[in-house]
């Protein structure tokens, strides 16, 4: 039997599993093994709501597929040995592969800011999001929460926390002139004004230079905070960062047009660790996984490599609490209740399909 090993049960590998297990062209001699540290797929795009306390974590857990061709191994990956075609797990025997899909996701990137790693909260994993929830929702009334980073994660966390804990003072630190500058100005203005109207202090043109217990420093000026959540950047998982392979300026793995290592067609990388011409997202990981599954089926059946089209993303949807949102669809900018409803519908459909 040939072994396909998938590292990480995130959006990319879940989509790859779905396509492979549903394919009538999956050869009988292929065994699939999924390795993850938790026994369920987590909806990472909703971690902000878990941390804010507006949903419980069973709403963002989805069971892994149950299929006779799929073996699931629970464990912590400690190393990928490319020369031995082996994955080492903490306290367990190595898992050997013929083909490998690395989908280990990302970690917070602290940009060298002293104290940021030690003194800030995170929403990058379900465990860290649970810890963040415990701390934020145990704060006393009128406590100050700093959210560093006003990208999609920071915006959604700050808005959801405003609805969950209206008694808190929330400060959103944004490096730009206005929130979400990559979007159309109409959308950015809408989001910025939503925060102003709902009592969230947006601190534009910020530069966090240091974080200490109980405070952070913006342009070296002390700002007292009872808790600080870091949403100001991501980087590939440390296991991937340690691999001696070609990476781009952001530390993501450079790939061939077929999504495998240029010198190793048995190792694919999907999602946040892959160097692609888009910002990392769940949608991007799924679209990439579709193509990886297509390539693997052709490879296993000794067929010519498929002609892969350009990955095209459908748009972005973000929430501002439970009643408002923002997003893009094609060239259109969406604001208000419609994009919030669209996001809820997409989430429901995803959970149903998975």
TrEMBL record:
Drop me one GO molecular function for this one.
oxidoreductase activity
User: Which cofactors must be present for this protein to function?
Assistant: FAD
Which SUPFAM superfamilies does the entry link to? Answer: FAD/NAD(P)-binding domain
Q: Does the keyword Oxidoreductase apply?
A: yes
- Could you list this entry's UniProt keywords, alphabetically sorted: FAD, Flavoprotein, Oxidoreductase
> What InterPro entries does the entry give?
FAD/NAD-bd_sf, FAD/NAD-binding_dom, NADH-Q_oxidoreductase
Domain FAD/NAD(P)-binding, residue spans: 3-282
- In the record, which residues are listed under signal peptide? none
For this protein, the Enzyme Commission number is: 1.6.5.-
Name the Pfam families on file: Pyr_redox_2
Q: Which family does it belong to?
A: Belongs to the NADH dehydrogenase family.
Kindly give the PANTHER family that the UniProt entry links to this protein.
64 KDA MITOCHONDRIAL NADH DEHYDROGENASE (EUROFUNG) (PTHR42913:SF3), APOPTOSIS-INDUCING FACTOR 1 (PTHR42913)
This protein's name: NAD(P)/FAD-dependent oxidoreductase
- Taxon lineage: Bacteria, Bacillati, Bacillota, Bacilli, Bacillales
């Amino acid at each position: 039997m040939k072994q396909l090993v998938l590292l990480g049960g995130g959006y990319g590998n879940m989509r790859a599993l779905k396509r492979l297990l549903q394919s009538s062209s999956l050869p009988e001699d292929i065994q699939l093994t999924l390795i993850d540290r938790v026994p369920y797929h987590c909806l990472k795009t909703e971690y902000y709501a878990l941390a804010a306390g507006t949903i419980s974590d069973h709403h963002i857990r989805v069971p892994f597929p149950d299929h006779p061709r799929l073996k699931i191994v629970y464990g912590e990956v400690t190393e990928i040995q490319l020369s031995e075609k082996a994955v080492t797990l903490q306290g367990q025997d190595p898992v050997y592969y013929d083909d490998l899909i690395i989908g280990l996701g990302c970690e917070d990137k602290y940009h060298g800011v002293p104290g940021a790693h030690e003194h800030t909260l995170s929403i990058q994993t379900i465990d860290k999001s649970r810890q963040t929830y415990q701390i934020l929702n145990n704060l006393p009334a009128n406590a100050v929460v700093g959210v560093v980073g006003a990208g999609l994660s920071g915006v959604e966390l700050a808005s959801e926390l405003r609805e969950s804990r209206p008694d808190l003072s929330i400060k959103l630190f944004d490096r730009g002139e206005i929130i979400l500058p990559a979007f159309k100005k109409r959308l950015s203005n809408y989001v910025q004004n939503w925060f102003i109207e709902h009592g969230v202090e947006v601190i534009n043109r910020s530069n966090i230079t240091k974080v200490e217990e109980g405070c952070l420093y913006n342009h070296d000026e002390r700002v007292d905070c009872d808790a600080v959540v870091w949403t100001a950047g991501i980087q590939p998982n440390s296991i991937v960062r340690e691999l001696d392979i070609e990476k781009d300026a952001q530390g993501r793995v450079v790939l061939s047009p077929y999504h495998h290592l240029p010198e190793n067609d048995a190792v694919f990388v999907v999602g946040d660790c892959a160097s692609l011409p888009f910002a990392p997202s769940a949608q991007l990981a799924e679209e990439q996984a579709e193509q990886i599954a297509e390539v693997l089926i052709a490879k296993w059946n000794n067929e010519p490599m498929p002609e892969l089209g350009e990955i095209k993303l459908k748009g972005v949807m973000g929430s501002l609490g439970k009643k408002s949102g923002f997003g893009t669809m094609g060239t259109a900018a969406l604001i208000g209740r419609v994009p919030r409803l669209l996001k809820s519908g997409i989430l429901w459909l995803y959970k149903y399909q998975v």
